[in-house]
């Protein structure tokens, strides 16, 4: 048995698919005249195969994804690109692989040099297509993450957030990686979709082979290669226990979220992609407290258009049927990259050019999203939330851009919710410290503990080496949460929380004690949170909170809360 760190609980049994980064070598070879025809034939066969696959994908998708595939199809059939590549074979007499490498790069370069951001980003598509054509020519195995066999166990050095967003979740029984952290977005997504996940398993991509049978225990981080009947039996028993707990939680599906002594709170879901909405509804989310809109951008190979975004936002609003849907504007940066947005690497990505900072610096990109959200607000109860606000000036600047978008839509006679609410994330200590001031200029707060913790204790959220120091129980973090909630209430606005801490049964008593109004979390944690809240008394929570606020050690706070839970 191998061991790693369990980051998403559950038992998984399936067959391994190893994702290895391919080191590609494209040889440059001269060819004889009589080989030209053969190389041209190979070129067209590879192009046709890629076009065929793209056409097949187009049949099953719509919206943004379909736009992208349509653009890919046009590229793969583009006469300029094909002629450029054919000429390298016919005139310069080079092998087809080299011709594709050079021909596609030349055309991509022309696009890259264009001033228009949209046209420049087409270069990325051309390179993507080049890679797909080369993979065909070189007979490389290419795993299509969005179309996997049932019971697949994904094994990778590291799974990027965008790779995880593409996963065919229904067929994934587990994820094992060499690198990753408990609070990385990949781990959050695995938990959302109830996929057992284990990280920090050295050399696993070389230990496991494609097709091998593996069982994993995401609670304890255990990996069993070709499990024996006894091992399977043991895991099955754990699975049965989990099923019993699940059944117990089902009872809370039809209940309101209210403490024993009558304090009602909102219990909302965090979503990242459209398919997360179904899960939120299934688990009786009372609204969407955080729509991480950046996944829409990450799930795409090109910048999503206003129209494609509008379709997704509208669809979420309609599916939620009049319930609140808080859409957070693009929060890219940190561990979330957009490959088609060619940004310089920041030395400290989490302290760098990201989220609202990047949006305020790229108005066409920001306005495209705001217009799409505003337009969708005519179809449901949509609200807008700005991420990573660190000062009141940023909030004012962002609101000004939103007002400009509203004026544009007014001029075009396009409908939107004229009273759309605008709120902010409180995830930077500076924002918590001036929460009372910020609260006067927005309609709601949502505390992002995932980032608030990392910025308060100066511990990168995904860095395992120092993960012991990353704790919500640190009295400084609790004080900042209190400041945010008190600040909101001083201006009579609602304060929610959409960081992972909102769904931790151990931490919930403090949040109730501090008066948090809305709890938003991955859909998988909803019922457990409701069960926890419905079994608490606000008065007792206030007492334990008062006690905890006097403490100075995170370890002691955690111990005290464990004791409180046990009684
Ligand atoms: C947070 O920081 O707590 C949060 C909810 O945002 P994200 O995890 O997407 O950074
Ligand atoms: Mg955040």
What is the arithmetic mean of pLDDT? 92
Name the CATH architecture of the largest domain.
Alpha-Beta Barrel
Question: Level of helix content?
Answer: 40-55%
Q: Please provide the count of β strands.
A: 16
User: Which kinds of small molecule does this entry bind, naming each only once?
Assistant: phosphoenolpyruvate, magnesium ion
Distance between the termini: 36 Å
Residue windows where pLDDT falls under 50 for at least 5 positions: none
Determine the number of helices (DSSP H or I, runs of at least 4 residues): 23
Order of strands in the sheet with the most strands?
Answer: 1-8-7-3-4-5-6-2
CATH topology of the largest domain: TIM Barrel
Report the C-alpha radius of gyration, rounded: 25 Å
Instruction: Report the portion of residues in β strands.
Output: 5-15%
Largest sheet: 8 strands, mixed
> What overall form do the CA principal axes indicate?
globular
Count of domain modules: 3
User: Under the CATH scheme, which class of the largest domain?
Assistant: Alpha Beta
Overall structural class, as computed from helix and strand content, comes to alpha/beta
What would you note in describing this structure?
There is one protein chain. The chain is α/β, with parallel strands linked by helices and 567 residues long. It is 48% helix and 14% strand. The protein is built from 23 helices and 16 strands. The protein has helices at 36-59, 63-76, 79-90, 96-112, 117-137, 161-166, 185-192, 204-207, 229-250, 276-282, 294-298, 306-319, 355-361, 363-376, 392-411, 429-433, 435-439, 449-457, 475-490, 508-514, 526-534, 538-549, 554-566, and strands at residues 2-3, 5-8, 11-19, 152-156, 172-177, 197-199, 213-217, 222-225, 266-271, 288-292, 324-328, 381-386, 422-426, 444-447, 494-497, 518-522. Strands 1-8-7-3-4-5-6-2 form an eight-stranded mixed sheet. Strands 9-10-11-12-13-14-15-16 form an eight-stranded parallel β-barrel, surrounded by seven helices. α20 (508-514) links the parallel β15 (494-497) and β16. α1 (36-59) packs across α5 and α3 crosses α4. The chain starts with a strand and ends with a helix. The model has no long low-confidence stretch (mean pLDDT 92).
